[in-house]
Amino acid sequence: MSDLGAVVYVLDLARAVEFYRLTTNWTVLQRESSFVTLQSPSERVATVLTLVQIPEAIAAEITLEDPPVRREDTPIKLSFFVKDLAAVRDLAPTVGGVVDAAETEWVFGSVRVCDGHDPEGNVVQFRQSS
Fold this sequence. Notes:
The protein is an alpha+beta fold. It has a single domain, classed as 2,3-Dihydroxybiphenyl 1,2-Dioxygenase, domain 1. The chain is 18% helix and 36% strand. The protein is built from three helices and nine strands. It has helices at residues 13-24, 56-59, 85-91; strands at residues 4-10, 27-31, 35-39, 47-53, 78-81, 98-99, 106-108, 111-117, 123-129. Strands 5, 6, 7, 8 and 9 form a five-stranded mixed beta sheet that branches. Strands 1-4-3-2 form a four-stranded mixed beta sheet, with helices on one face. It is globular, with a radius of gyration of 15 Å. The mean pLDDT is 94.
């Protein structure tokens, strides 16, 4: 049972799982053929992210560009605390994503923040404590 969770529908489940698992350092909580749930390592708030395979009939109508075009026309942005923004920036392209350049980082309260996107163009924000 978790206190907080999010669900993201994806075309390439395996690729999305690797992106989120490696960039966030979250662990696989549950793996089924059509979805994978990741859990945060935080002891303060139990948080999960469930990645769900888009059904074939719907997926057939969706085309992703390579590299993916960032989907910025949504009011929702997932945000993850990471230990090292620079390390995640270097890692993200190896699993199909992007973390924007260091020059685009900003400080929000006591947190250094930078946007990016996952392998399918979903906007993601990474945050590092100052």
